[in-house]
Protein backbone atom coordinates (compact mmCIF):
# COMPACT_ATOMS: atom_id res chain seq x y z
CA UNK A 1 0.00 0.00 0.00
CA UNK A 2 1.23 3.46 -0.91
CA UNK A 3 0.71 6.73 0.96
CA UNK A 4 0.35 10.27 -0.27
CA UNK A 5 -2.22 12.67 -1.71
CA UNK A 6 -3.08 12.63 -5.42
CA UNK A 7 -5.35 15.13 -7.17
CA UNK A 8 -7.10 14.09 -10.41
CA UNK A 9 -8.18 16.95 -12.74
CA UNK A 10 -10.38 15.60 -15.53
CA UNK A 11 -13.66 16.95 -16.95
CA UNK A 12 -14.98 13.56 -18.12
CA UNK A 13 -16.78 12.24 -15.01
CA UNK A 14 -16.42 8.57 -16.04
CA UNK A 15 -12.62 8.74 -16.49
CA UNK A 16 -12.28 10.97 -13.41
CA UNK A 17 -14.07 8.55 -11.08
CA UNK A 18 -12.29 5.55 -12.59
CA UNK A 19 -8.88 7.16 -11.92
CA UNK A 20 -9.93 8.10 -8.39
CA UNK A 21 -10.98 4.50 -7.71
CA UNK A 22 -7.77 3.00 -9.13
CA UNK A 23 -5.61 5.37 -7.04
CA UNK A 24 -7.65 4.77 -3.88
CA UNK A 25 -7.27 1.00 -4.27
CA UNK A 26 -3.50 1.54 -4.37
CA UNK A 27 -3.70 3.21 -0.97
CA UNK A 28 -3.34 6.84 -2.08
CA UNK A 29 -5.70 9.52 -0.80
CA UNK A 30 -7.33 10.68 -4.04
CA UNK A 31 -9.10 14.01 -4.64
CA UNK A 32 -10.97 14.70 -7.89
CA UNK A 33 -12.12 17.91 -9.61
CA UNK A 34 -13.49 18.78 -13.06
CA UNK A 35 -11.70 22.08 -13.74
CA UNK A 36 -8.64 24.21 -12.89
CA UNK A 37 -10.53 26.65 -10.67
CA UNK A 38 -11.58 23.85 -8.32
CA UNK A 39 -8.09 22.33 -8.60
CA UNK A 40 -6.44 25.55 -7.39
CA UNK A 41 -8.69 25.54 -4.33
CA UNK A 42 -7.74 21.94 -3.46
CA UNK A 43 -4.02 22.69 -3.89
CA UNK A 44 -4.38 25.71 -1.59
CA UNK A 45 -6.19 23.78 1.12
CA UNK A 46 -4.70 20.28 1.05
CA UNK A 47 -1.15 18.88 1.08
CA UNK A 48 -1.11 17.57 -2.50
CA UNK A 49 1.95 15.54 -3.58
CA UNK A 50 1.07 14.46 -7.14
CA UNK A 51 -1.40 15.83 -9.70
CA UNK A 52 -2.79 13.79 -12.62
CA UNK A 53 -4.16 16.39 -15.04
CA UNK A 54 -5.89 16.40 -18.42
CA UNK A 55 -4.38 18.80 -20.97
CA UNK A 56 -7.72 20.08 -22.35
CA UNK A 57 -9.96 21.43 -19.61
CA UNK A 58 -13.10 23.62 -19.68
CA UNK A 59 -11.36 26.61 -18.08
CA UNK A 60 -7.85 26.33 -19.44
CA UNK A 61 -4.92 24.21 -20.43
CA UNK A 62 -3.08 21.61 -18.30
CA UNK A 63 0.28 22.61 -19.75
CA UNK A 64 -0.12 26.25 -18.68
CA UNK A 65 -1.44 25.05 -15.33
CA UNK A 66 1.73 22.94 -14.86
CA UNK A 67 3.90 26.02 -15.26
CA UNK A 68 1.80 27.93 -12.73
CA UNK A 69 1.85 25.15 -10.14
CA UNK A 70 5.59 24.50 -10.48
CA UNK A 71 6.39 28.17 -9.93
CA UNK A 72 4.60 28.19 -6.53
CA UNK A 73 4.75 24.58 -5.35
CA UNK A 74 8.06 23.18 -6.51
CA UNK A 75 7.64 19.83 -4.79
CA UNK A 76 4.29 18.90 -6.34
CA UNK A 77 4.84 16.50 -9.26
CA UNK A 78 2.48 16.63 -12.25
CA UNK A 79 1.57 13.86 -14.71
CA UNK A 80 -0.33 15.03 -17.79
CA UNK A 81 -2.91 13.10 -19.78
CA UNK A 82 -2.49 14.04 -23.45
CA UNK A 83 -4.57 13.22 -26.49
CA UNK A 84 -3.20 10.42 -28.67
CA UNK A 85 -0.01 11.30 -30.51
CA UNK A 86 0.13 14.96 -29.61
CA UNK A 87 3.93 15.36 -29.53
CA UNK A 88 4.30 19.19 -29.34
CA UNK A 89 2.06 19.19 -26.24
CA UNK A 90 4.20 16.65 -24.43
CA UNK A 91 7.46 18.46 -25.26
CA UNK A 92 6.10 21.73 -23.88
CA UNK A 93 4.71 19.89 -20.84
CA UNK A 94 8.16 18.59 -19.92
CA UNK A 95 9.67 22.03 -20.46
CA UNK A 96 7.12 23.45 -18.04
CA UNK A 97 8.28 21.01 -15.37
CA UNK A 98 5.83 18.11 -15.71
CA UNK A 99 7.06 14.83 -14.21
CA UNK A 100 5.83 12.89 -17.25
CA UNK A 101 2.89 12.53 -19.59
CA UNK A 102 0.76 9.61 -20.57
CA UNK A 103 -1.45 9.19 -23.63
CA UNK A 104 -5.14 8.98 -22.79
CA UNK A 105 -6.63 5.63 -23.57
CA UNK A 106 -3.35 3.86 -22.74
CA UNK A 107 -3.99 1.14 -20.24
CA UNK A 108 -4.13 2.34 -16.66
CA UNK A 109 -1.31 -0.04 -15.69
CA UNK A 110 1.17 2.57 -16.90
CA UNK A 111 -0.31 5.22 -14.65
CA UNK A 112 0.22 3.53 -11.28
CA UNK A 113 4.03 3.02 -11.59
CA UNK A 114 4.24 6.60 -12.89
CA UNK A 115 2.31 7.97 -9.88
CA UNK A 116 4.48 5.83 -7.60
CA UNK A 117 7.73 7.31 -9.03
CA UNK A 118 6.35 10.84 -8.97
CA UNK A 119 5.32 10.33 -5.32
CA UNK A 120 8.82 9.13 -4.42
CA UNK A 121 10.33 12.21 -6.02
CA UNK A 122 7.84 14.52 -4.28
CA UNK A 123 8.59 12.92 -0.90
CA UNK A 124 12.32 13.17 -1.42
CA UNK A 125 12.02 16.86 -2.27
CA UNK A 126 9.86 17.39 0.80
CA UNK A 127 12.48 15.68 2.98
CA UNK A 128 15.34 17.77 1.52
CA UNK A 129 13.30 20.91 2.07
CA UNK A 130 12.63 19.93 5.71
CA UNK A 131 16.31 19.23 6.21
CA UNK A 132 17.26 22.56 4.67
CA UNK A 133 14.78 24.40 6.90
CA UNK A 134 16.00 22.44 9.91
CA UNK A 135 19.58 23.25 8.95
CA UNK A 136 18.78 26.94 8.68
CA UNK A 137 17.06 26.83 12.08
CA UNK A 138 19.50 24.74 14.05
CA UNK A 139 22.84 25.18 12.54
CA UNK A 140 24.01 28.67 12.08
CA UNK A 141 26.49 30.99 13.66
CA UNK A 142 23.73 33.47 14.50
CA UNK A 143 22.58 31.10 17.23
CA UNK A 144 25.84 31.76 19.07
CA UNK A 145 25.08 34.56 21.50
CA UNK A 146 28.04 36.80 22.17
CA UNK A 147 29.45 40.32 22.05
CA UNK A 148 32.98 39.41 23.02
CA UNK A 149 35.86 39.93 20.57
CA UNK A 150 37.37 36.57 21.51
CA UNK A 151 34.21 34.76 20.36
CA UNK A 152 33.98 36.91 17.23
CA UNK A 153 37.48 35.71 16.34
CA UNK A 154 36.53 32.08 17.07
CA UNK A 155 33.43 32.37 14.87
CA UNK A 156 35.43 33.86 12.00
CA UNK A 157 37.89 30.91 12.16
CA UNK A 158 35.03 28.42 12.30
CA UNK A 159 33.28 30.03 9.31
CA UNK A 160 36.45 29.72 7.23
CA UNK A 161 37.03 26.06 8.06
CA UNK A 162 33.33 25.26 7.55
CA UNK A 163 33.73 25.85 3.81
CA UNK A 164 36.47 23.21 3.57
CA UNK A 165 36.31 19.46 4.16
CA UNK A 166 39.03 19.61 6.84
CA UNK A 167 38.76 17.67 10.07
CA UNK A 168 38.27 20.05 13.00
CA UNK A 169 39.34 19.64 16.62
CA UNK A 170 37.45 21.79 19.15
CA UNK A 171 39.22 22.34 22.46
CA UNK A 172 37.58 23.79 25.52
CA UNK A 173 36.31 23.14 29.03
CA UNK A 174 33.01 21.36 29.66
CA UNK A 175 30.02 23.56 28.87
CA UNK A 176 31.79 26.03 26.55
CA UNK A 177 29.51 25.21 23.59
CA UNK A 178 31.60 22.75 21.58
CA UNK A 179 28.57 20.96 20.14
CA UNK A 180 26.91 24.28 19.22
CA UNK A 181 30.04 25.20 17.25
CA UNK A 182 30.19 21.76 15.61
CA UNK A 183 26.56 22.13 14.47
CA UNK A 184 27.21 25.64 13.16
CA UNK A 185 30.27 24.44 11.18
CA UNK A 186 28.16 21.64 9.68
CA UNK A 187 25.36 24.08 8.87
CA UNK A 188 27.68 26.46 7.06
CA UNK A 189 29.32 23.65 5.07
CA UNK A 190 28.40 22.07 1.75
CA UNK A 191 27.12 19.08 3.74
CA UNK A 192 24.40 21.07 5.54
CA UNK A 193 21.43 19.20 4.00
CA UNK A 194 22.90 15.84 5.01
CA UNK A 195 22.88 14.42 8.55
CA UNK A 196 24.71 15.86 11.53
CA UNK A 197 25.31 13.01 13.99
CA UNK A 198 26.75 13.52 17.48
CA UNK A 199 28.31 10.87 19.69
CA UNK A 200 29.66 11.34 23.21
CA UNK A 201 32.59 8.92 23.51
CA UNK A 202 32.46 8.95 27.31
CA UNK A 203 28.85 7.77 27.42
CA UNK A 204 29.48 4.13 26.42
CA UNK A 205 31.56 1.15 27.52
CA UNK A 206 34.24 0.17 24.96
CA UNK A 207 32.31 -2.82 23.52
CA UNK A 208 29.12 -0.81 23.14
CA UNK A 209 30.93 2.18 21.71
CA UNK A 210 32.44 0.11 18.91
CA UNK A 211 29.04 -1.19 17.82
CA UNK A 212 27.52 2.31 18.24
CA UNK A 213 30.20 3.84 16.04
CA UNK A 214 30.78 1.18 13.39
CA UNK A 215 27.57 -0.85 13.56
CA UNK A 216 27.42 -4.64 13.64
CA UNK A 217 26.26 -7.67 11.68
CA UNK A 218 23.55 -9.95 13.07
CA UNK A 219 25.07 -12.59 15.34
CA UNK A 220 28.29 -10.59 15.89
CA UNK A 221 27.76 -11.01 19.65
CA UNK A 222 25.05 -12.18 22.05
CA UNK A 223 22.07 -9.94 21.65
CA UNK A 224 22.98 -8.81 18.11
CA UNK A 225 19.71 -10.03 16.62
CA UNK A 226 19.81 -8.03 13.42
CA UNK A 227 22.24 -5.89 11.44
CA UNK A 228 22.70 -2.43 12.89
CA UNK A 229 24.03 0.62 11.12
CA UNK A 230 26.66 2.50 13.09
CA UNK A 231 26.69 6.27 13.51
CA UNK A 232 29.51 6.60 10.96
CA UNK A 233 27.23 5.11 8.32
CA UNK A 234 24.22 7.16 9.45
CA UNK A 235 26.34 10.31 9.04
CA UNK A 236 27.29 9.38 5.46
CA UNK A 237 27.63 12.50 3.26
CA UNK A 238 27.23 14.60 6.42
CA UNK A 239 29.21 15.33 9.57
CA UNK A 240 30.04 13.10 12.55
CA UNK A 241 30.77 14.95 15.78
CA UNK A 242 32.80 12.95 18.31
CA UNK A 243 32.59 14.65 21.68
CA UNK A 244 35.03 13.76 24.48
CA UNK A 245 37.38 12.13 21.94
CA UNK A 246 39.98 11.86 24.72
CA UNK A 247 37.83 9.11 26.28
CA UNK A 248 38.10 6.89 23.18
CA UNK A 249 39.62 3.48 23.98
CA UNK A 250 43.02 2.96 22.37
CA UNK A 251 41.77 0.01 20.20
CA UNK A 252 39.01 2.22 18.82
CA UNK A 253 41.52 5.02 18.24
CA UNK A 254 43.31 2.70 15.77
CA UNK A 255 40.04 1.89 13.99
CA UNK A 256 39.05 5.54 13.80
CA UNK A 257 42.45 6.41 12.36
CA UNK A 258 41.86 3.85 9.60
CA UNK A 259 38.53 5.53 8.71
CA UNK A 260 40.19 8.95 8.56
CA UNK A 261 42.97 7.62 6.33
CA UNK A 262 41.00 5.40 3.94
CA UNK A 263 37.32 6.38 4.18
CA UNK A 264 36.38 2.77 4.98
CA UNK A 265 35.67 0.70 8.07
CA UNK A 266 34.63 -2.78 9.14
CA UNK A 267 31.41 -3.39 11.07
CA UNK A 268 31.64 -5.56 14.16
CA UNK A 269 31.35 -9.18 12.95
CA UNK A 270 31.78 -8.30 9.27
CA UNK A 271 34.52 -9.42 6.91
CA UNK A 272 34.30 -6.75 4.26
CA UNK A 273 34.94 -3.01 4.33
CA UNK A 274 32.16 -0.43 4.05
CA UNK A 275 33.01 2.84 2.26
CA UNK A 276 31.82 6.18 3.60
CA UNK A 277 32.23 9.89 3.02
CA UNK A 278 32.01 11.71 6.34
CA UNK A 279 33.47 14.89 7.71
CA UNK A 280 34.78 14.51 11.27
CA UNK A 281 34.64 17.12 14.00
CA UNK A 282 36.12 16.05 17.34
CA UNK A 283 36.08 17.79 20.69
CA UNK A 284 37.74 17.32 24.05
CA UNK A 285 37.95 19.06 27.42
CA UNK A 286 41.19 17.29 28.26
CA UNK A 287 44.74 18.44 27.70
CA UNK A 288 45.08 16.20 24.67
CA UNK A 289 48.67 17.15 23.83
CA UNK A 290 49.69 16.03 27.29
CA UNK A 291 47.86 12.75 26.79
CA UNK A 292 49.75 12.24 23.52
CA UNK A 293 53.03 12.81 25.36
CA UNK A 294 52.11 10.36 28.09
CA UNK A 295 51.02 7.76 25.52
CA UNK A 296 47.32 7.66 26.51
CA UNK A 297 46.27 9.07 23.14
CA UNK A 298 47.71 7.93 19.80
CA UNK A 299 50.05 10.48 18.27
CA UNK A 300 49.11 9.59 14.66
CA UNK A 301 45.37 10.01 15.41
CA UNK A 302 46.03 13.32 17.15
CA UNK A 303 47.86 14.63 14.04
CA UNK A 304 44.96 13.51 11.85
CA UNK A 305 42.35 15.21 14.04
CA UNK A 306 44.50 18.25 14.60
CA UNK A 307 44.28 19.52 11.00
CA UNK A 308 42.44 22.61 12.21
CA UNK A 309 42.09 23.42 15.92
CA UNK A 310 39.65 25.88 17.43
CA UNK A 311 39.97 26.91 21.09
CA UNK A 312 36.68 27.79 22.76
CA UNK A 313 37.27 30.28 25.58
CA UNK A 314 35.79 29.62 29.04
CA UNK A 315 32.98 31.91 30.19
CA UNK A 316 35.27 33.73 32.68
CA UNK A 317 37.29 34.99 29.67
CA UNK A 318 34.20 36.54 28.09
CA UNK A 319 32.70 38.37 31.05
CA UNK A 320 30.75 40.84 28.90
CA UNK A 321 28.69 37.90 27.58
CA UNK A 322 27.34 36.91 31.00
CA UNK A 323 24.48 39.49 31.12
CA UNK A 324 23.38 38.81 27.50
CA UNK A 325 23.46 35.04 27.96
CA UNK A 326 21.54 35.42 31.24
CA UNK A 327 18.97 37.63 29.46
CA UNK A 328 18.60 35.03 26.69
CA UNK A 329 18.02 32.16 29.16
CA UNK A 330 15.67 34.34 31.21
CA UNK A 331 13.39 34.63 28.16
CA UNK A 332 13.73 30.95 27.21
CA UNK A 333 12.79 29.66 30.68
CA UNK A 334 10.07 32.26 31.39
CA UNK A 335 8.35 31.14 28.19
CA UNK A 336 8.83 27.49 29.10
CA UNK A 337 7.35 27.91 32.58
CA UNK A 338 4.70 30.45 31.48
CA UNK A 339 5.95 33.12 33.87
CA UNK A 340 6.21 36.82 33.29
CA UNK A 341 9.62 37.82 34.52
CA UNK A 342 10.71 41.14 33.13
CA UNK A 343 14.29 41.40 34.22
CA UNK A 344 17.12 40.88 36.69
CA UNK A 345 18.11 43.11 39.60
CA UNK A 346 21.51 44.80 39.54
CA UNK A 347 22.57 42.71 42.52
CA UNK A 348 21.55 39.51 40.64
CA UNK A 349 23.76 40.44 37.67
CA UNK A 350 26.63 41.52 39.94
CA UNK A 351 26.55 38.12 41.63
CA UNK A 352 26.64 36.43 38.21
CA UNK A 353 29.66 38.50 37.18
CA UNK A 354 31.57 37.60 40.34
CA UNK A 355 31.11 33.85 39.99
CA UNK A 356 33.92 31.83 38.38
CA UNK A 357 31.65 29.57 36.21
CA UNK A 358 33.68 26.36 36.29
CA UNK A 359 30.82 24.71 34.39
CA UNK A 360 30.76 27.58 31.85
CA UNK A 361 27.63 28.33 29.77
CA UNK A 362 26.00 25.04 30.76
CA UNK A 363 26.29 26.01 34.44
CA UNK A 364 24.90 29.49 33.73
CA UNK A 365 21.97 27.93 31.86
CA UNK A 366 21.17 25.67 34.85
CA UNK A 367 21.46 28.55 37.32
CA UNK A 368 19.06 30.64 35.20
CA UNK A 369 16.53 27.82 34.86
CA UNK A 370 16.51 27.31 38.61
CA UNK A 371 16.25 31.05 39.31
CA UNK A 372 13.23 31.36 37.01
CA UNK A 373 11.53 28.35 38.64
CA UNK A 374 11.86 29.70 42.18
CA UNK A 375 11.30 33.38 41.38
CA UNK A 376 8.29 34.90 43.12
CA UNK A 377 8.26 38.35 41.60
CA UNK A 378 8.59 39.85 38.13
CA UNK A 379 12.30 40.43 38.68
CA UNK A 380 15.05 37.92 39.44
CA UNK A 381 16.88 38.86 42.65
CA UNK A 382 20.02 37.58 44.33
CA UNK A 383 17.93 35.32 46.61
CA UNK A 384 16.99 33.32 43.51
CA UNK A 385 20.62 32.25 43.07
CA UNK A 386 22.18 29.07 44.45
CA UNK A 387 23.70 29.54 47.91
CA UNK A 388 27.28 29.11 46.77
CA UNK A 389 26.90 32.11 44.41
CA UNK A 390 25.15 34.16 47.10
CA UNK A 391 27.70 33.27 49.79
CA UNK A 392 30.67 34.07 47.64
CA UNK A 393 29.46 37.62 47.33
CA UNK A 394 28.67 37.91 51.03
CA UNK A 395 32.28 37.19 51.89
CA UNK A 396 33.17 40.49 50.23
CA UNK A 397 30.71 42.44 52.34
CA UNK A 398 31.25 43.79 55.87
CA UNK A 399 28.74 43.09 58.60
CA UNK A 400 27.66 40.17 60.70
CA UNK A 401 28.71 37.31 58.45
CA UNK A 402 27.19 34.33 60.23
CA UNK A 403 23.87 36.09 60.76
CA UNK A 404 23.78 37.10 57.08
CA UNK A 405 24.52 33.62 55.78
CA UNK A 406 22.01 31.90 58.01
CA UNK A 407 19.20 34.29 57.21
CA UNK A 408 19.95 34.01 53.48
CA UNK A 409 20.01 30.22 53.73
CA UNK A 410 16.83 30.07 55.80
CA UNK A 411 14.74 32.24 53.44
CA UNK A 412 16.19 30.50 50.40
CA UNK A 413 15.28 26.99 51.62
CA UNK A 414 11.81 28.18 52.62
CA UNK A 415 11.27 29.64 49.16
CA UNK A 416 12.35 26.42 47.45
CA UNK A 417 10.06 24.38 49.72
CA UNK A 418 7.20 26.72 48.83
CA UNK A 419 7.95 26.19 45.17
CA UNK A 420 7.95 22.39 45.47
CA UNK A 421 4.82 22.59 47.66
CA UNK A 422 6.61 20.75 50.43
CA UNK A 423 8.07 18.03 48.22
CA UNK A 424 11.42 17.53 49.97
CA UNK A 425 12.97 15.18 47.41
CA UNK A 426 12.36 17.79 44.71
CA UNK A 427 13.55 20.62 46.98
CA UNK A 428 16.79 18.80 47.88
CA UNK A 429 17.43 18.27 44.17
CA UNK A 430 16.93 21.97 43.35
CA UNK A 431 19.09 23.00 46.32
CA UNK A 432 21.72 20.49 45.28
CA UNK A 433 22.00 19.06 48.81
CA UNK A 434 21.28 15.62 50.29
CA UNK A 435 17.82 14.85 51.63
CA UNK A 436 19.11 14.30 55.19
CA UNK A 437 20.86 17.68 55.07
CA UNK A 438 17.56 19.26 54.06
CA UNK A 439 15.71 17.61 56.95
CA UNK A 440 18.40 18.87 59.33
CA UNK A 441 18.10 22.44 57.99
CA UNK A 442 14.27 22.35 58.26
CA UNK A 443 14.65 21.39 61.91
CA UNK A 444 17.49 23.84 62.59
CA UNK A 445 15.67 26.83 61.08
CA UNK A 446 12.23 25.65 62.29
CA UNK A 447 10.92 26.03 58.76
CA UNK A 448 7.22 25.78 58.03
CA UNK A 449 6.66 22.24 56.89
CA UNK A 450 2.93 22.10 56.35
CA UNK A 451 1.39 23.08 53.06
CA UNK A 452 -2.28 23.84 53.34
CA UNK A 453 -4.22 25.63 50.67
CA UNK A 454 -2.19 27.25 48.00
CA UNK A 455 1.32 28.32 49.04
CA UNK A 456 3.11 31.00 47.08
CA UNK A 457 5.09 29.52 44.20
CATH class of the largest domain: Alpha Beta
Give the terminus-to-terminus CA distance. Answer: 53 Å
Stated plainly, the CATH topology of the largest domain is called Rossmann fold
Largest sheet: 5 strands, parallel
Give the structural class: alpha/beta
Question: What overall form do the CA principal axes indicate?
Answer: extended
Give the strand tally. Answer: 18
Treating each run of at least 4 consecutive H or I residues as one helix, how many helices?
Answer: 19
Number of domains: 3
Question: In the CATH hierarchy, what is the superfamily of the largest domain?
Answer: P-loop containing nucleotide triphosphate hydrolases
Notes on the structure:
The two termini are 53 Å apart. The chain is α/β, with parallel strands linked by helices and 457 residues long. Strand 13 and strand 14 form a beta hairpin. The protein has a 5-stranded parallel beta sheet with strand order 2-1-3-6-7, with helices on both faces. A 5-stranded parallel beta sheet has the order 9-12-15-8-16. The C terminus is likely disordered. The chain is 48% helix and 15% strand. The chain folds into 3 domains: 130 residues, 3-Layer(aba) Sandwich (Rossmann fold), CATH 3.40.50; 175 residues, Rossmann fold (3-Layer(aba) Sandwich), CATH 3.40.50; 129 residues, Helicase, Ruva Protein, domain 3 (Orthogonal Bundle), CATH 1.10.8.60. The radius of gyration is 31 Å and the shape is extended. It contains 19 helices and 18 strands.
Amino acid sequence: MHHGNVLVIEDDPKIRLLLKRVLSLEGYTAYEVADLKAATQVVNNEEIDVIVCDVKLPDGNGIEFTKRIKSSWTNIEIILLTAFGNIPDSVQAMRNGAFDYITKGDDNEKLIPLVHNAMEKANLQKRVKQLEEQAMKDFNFDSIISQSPVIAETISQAKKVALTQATVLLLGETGTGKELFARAIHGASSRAVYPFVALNCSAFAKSLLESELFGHKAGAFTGAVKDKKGLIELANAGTLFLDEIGELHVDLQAKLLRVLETGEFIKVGDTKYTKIDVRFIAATNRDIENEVKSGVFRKDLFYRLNTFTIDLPPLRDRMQDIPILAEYYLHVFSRKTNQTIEGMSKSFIDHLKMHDWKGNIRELKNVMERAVIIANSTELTAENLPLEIQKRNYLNQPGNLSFDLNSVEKSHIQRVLNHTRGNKVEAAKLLNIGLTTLYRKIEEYKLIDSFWGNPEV
